[in-house]
Write a structure and sequence with these properties.
By secondary structure, this protein is an alpha/beta fold. It is built from ten helices and 15 strands. The strands form four sheets. It has a six-stranded parallel β-sheet with strand order 12-11-10-13-14-15, with helices on both faces. The chain has a five-stranded antiparallel β-sheet with strand order 1-2-3-4-5, with no helix packed on it. Strands 6-7 form a two-stranded antiparallel ribbon. Strand 2 and strand 3 form a beta hairpin. Helix 2 crosses helix 5, helix 4 packs across helix 5 and helix 9 crosses helix 10. The longest helix has 20 residues. The chain starts with a strand and ends in a 10-residue tail after the last strand.
């Protein structure tokens, strides 16, 4: 018997597994108890699941609904946007949501299974069931995952332009867009070992001013120095950062940071943003000698935090550096995707808000 609970809702499962070679068939019976505010009664469900090498798919599913409840109005007492489409059969007394509670809001795991309910056509039911690992070590990216780089950077640059080149204030958005584009390109070169950080710091301002037709006359160095000093003092974080990290601490998880940022800058950021107390250690690329997504930085991080792969997971916003880098190294991932960007590659989990981490851990 396995219990699941989320917001007062329970699912109780009983299963009868039969194993043959590397295949396991499981007949699962469970009862879905709707949230308290719903008028829907508990619903018995039976699923036949076939698992091969840890990959599971539904062979058949039946969600039995009493005839008295078979009405669209009854079924759709879920939060808006949670049910995409309902098809029903009064004859067989069951219904098939095409995407039933895709976010699994009412089916959250309690360290057992992660149920991702994605039902397809009636004749082609499929379901992914992943064994929920017991994670102990949570590795976070810093910039654009916890610390709001865009907001903090924009505020700092606006202050510096007003201070050093006030006549450029009318073209600030032009400056900002160009600076970000050039900065991203130079950071890619830095991460690939093509550019030294001392060059990056000044060159991003030099190139921005040059392309805007501004003769800085040594101002690039001053802007660079002030930006490195003042930007880390800004404290804008993504929503739910503190409460989520506090929750994870209380749950007993070990929290770490892995960042490609400059060590002296990142230390200031986490101190002034009051993030330092949540984390046991911060691993920087300068310390490790390798940049994300190189597997060596993840290897270094696990070794220096006495962590094991199967108990560790990487949480970050950068698909290549954080997610695919960690995945190639062999640890699970949580893709922080507040912009809801489209991508093809597979991730272990995806969240749009840091608060969503509560549904995983």
């Amino acid at each position: 018997m396995v219990d699941f609970m989320e917001s007062g809702s329970w699912i109780k499962l009983s299963s009868n597994p039969r194993q043959r070679n590397n295949k396991v068939s499981v007949l699962i019976n469970f009862v879905l108890k709707m949230p308290k505010e719903s008028e829907i009664t508990p619903l018995p469900v039976r699923m036949l699941i076939m698992c091969t090498n840890g990959v599971c798919s539904i062979v058949s599913v039946a969600l039995i609904i009493p005839a008295s409840l078979i009405s669209r109005e009854s079924v759709c007492d879920f939060p808006e946007n949670e049910v995409d489409k309902i098809t029903m059969s009064t004859k067989n007394k069951f219904f098939t949501p095409v995407k039933f509670l895709k976010k699994t809001r009412y089916l959250q795991p309690a360290n057992c299974f992660n149920l991702i309910l994605t039902f397809c056509k009636k004749e082609d039911y499929k379901m992914q069931i992943k064994h929920q690992k017991t994670y102990r070590n949570l590795f976070f990216d810093l910039d654009r995952t916890l610390w709001d780089f865009k907001t903090n950077s924009e505020v700092t640059l606006n202050e510096l332009i007003a201070r050093h080149i006030p006549e450029l204030s009318q073209r600030f958005q032009e400056f900002l867009d160009l600076f970000y584009r050039i900065n991203d390109n130079l950071w890619n070169q830095y991460e690939n070992g093509i550019l030294k950080k001392e060059v990056l710091r000044t060159k991003r301002f030099e190139d921005t001013f040059a392309q805007m037709g501004i003769h800085a006359n040594g101002l690039s160095q001053k802007m660079s120095d002030d930006y490195i000093t003042e930007s880390p003092l800004k404290t804008a974080l993504f929503p739910h950062t503190h409460e989520t990290l506090s929750y994870l601490n209380e749950k007993g998880y070990r929290l770490f940071l892995i960042t490609n940022g400059f060590t002296e800058v990142q230390v200031v950021k986490i101190k002034h943003s009051s993030l330092e107390p949540y984390f046991e250690k911060m691993i920087t690329s300068e310390e490790a000698g390798y940049q994300k997504p190189h597997r060596k930085i993840f290897e270094y991080a696990l070794k220096n935090t006495h962590s094991r792969k199967k108990e560790s997971i990487m949480i970050g916003d950068d698909l290549e550096n954080d997610i695919f880098g960690a995945r190639r190294f062999g640890i699970d991932t949580v893709f922080f995707n507040p912009e809801k960007i489209k991508y093809q590659q597979q991730t272990t989990f995806e969240i749009q808000s840091l608060a969503d981490l509560r549904t995983i851990f």
